[in-house]
Structure formats: C-alpha cells, structure tokens
Design brief:
There is one protein chain. By secondary structure, this protein is an alpha/beta fold. The protein folds into two domains: 5-114, ATPase, nucleotide binding domain (Nucleotidyltransferase, domain 5); 124-188. It is 56% helix and 18% strand. It has six helices and five strands. A five-stranded mixed β-sheet has the order 3-2-1-4-5. The longest helix is centred in the C-terminal third of the chain and has 32 residues, at 157-188.
Length: 190
C-alpha cells in the first residue's frame, strides 16, 4: 500500500501536536502523550482517510518513542530525525513564529522534502536492557549528588544521617539493577 498522508509531530512530555498533510490539505490537532492519545490519533487520521501514514518526529529523549513504536506496530512508516536537521530546514524556510503547531507543520514539510530514513524500534529485550541501564546510571548520578551534599561541613548531623540513609538505599537499588542487567544479558545472550 502506498503512503497517502504525511504526519508531522511536535512532541513533548504531556502532549503532541500533529500536522496531517494529505490531498493538498493541512489539518492540525493536539493529543495527550499516552496510549489513549495514540488511539485517538489513529481514529482522527482514519477519519480523514489517512490509511498509510509517514509519521515524522524529532529525536527528543524518550518522549516520542512510545508513539513511534505504537504507529510502527500498526504498519505505518516512521522517521525519527535529528533536531538539528529540522532546525536547519526551518531556517531555510525563514520561519519566524515558533509554536508547537508551526513546528508540527514544518516537520511534515521536512518529511516531504527530505524523505528521511525509516526508523525501526529496537527489540523489546534490548529496550528493556537500555531502560535498566539508564535507570542505573540515573541512580548513580543521584548517589553522587547526595555524596556531594555530605561534604557540607556546616550541615546538621541529623541531615547528614538522613542523607547517608538515602545513599545506602540508592546503593542497594544499584546492586539490584546491576544483578537484573547481568541476568538479562545472560538470558538473552546479549
């Protein structure tokens, strides 16, 4: 089946703005960045006759990965693009006002003009491993922050004691995650 619609997406933590380009028409809508919002997006696109979509969004941490995976799993084409490419494209269009709505439209036009490479989600076991690793790294950063706070010589002893307990709890969770990471690697032979 041939792609019959382009969907530019400007995504954030709680919501995403879309611009649907189809049959020389531009349509905009905002959805919640959750499973319910994804389902409503599909209904909205289908209501406009968009059967096979090429969805394009910026690589923005983890905000867009669930939507990208959801749409990919439904058989749509998905491209996740470096934000610097989108920014350069916007400059080439001499865009002045920057809103979520205008960004979604610009991303859709970028998709038409540049035909970016299609994205494929990583295997679920690799995604799980990546999430475990990121969580562990975040906890290690938290531990370092708390250890730096302990260096304050003027801190009251009860505060130091509380922070020391937090550090111990973080260390315990780091060990739990390290164990789970090793078990996961051994189980999937990664």
């Amino acid at each position: 089946m041939q792609v019959n619609a382009i969907l530019g997406v400007d995504i954030s933590k709680k919501k995403f703005d879309v611009c649907l380009l189809m049959d020389n028409k531009k349509r905009h809508k905002v959805f919640q960045n959750n499973q319910d919002g994804f389902a409503k997006l599909v209904v909205w696109c289908n209501g406009h006759g968009a059967n096979l979509i090429h969805l394009c969004l910026e690589a923005t941490s983890w905000y867009g990965e669930d939507l990208a995976t959801f749409m990919h799993d439904l058989g749509h084409n998905v491209s996740i693009v470096n934000p610097a490419q989108i920014k350069a494209f916007g400059k080439s269009e001499l865009l002045r006002n920057k809103t979520d709505k205008s960004d979604a439209a610009m991303i859709a036009r970028f998709c038409i003009a540049n035909k970016p490479a299609l994205w494929k989600p990583i295997a679920p076991e690799m995604r799980h491993l990546r999430d475990l690793y990121r969580c562990m790294q975040s906890l290690k950063n938290d531990k370092l922050q708390q250890m730096n706070r302990l260096k304050n010589e003027n801190m009251h002893s009860s505060c130091k004691e509380a922070i020391s307990k937090v550090i111990l709890a973080i260390e315990e969770q780091i060990i739990v995650l390290e164990t789970e990471i090793n078990e996961h690697i051994n189980h999937y032979h990664i």
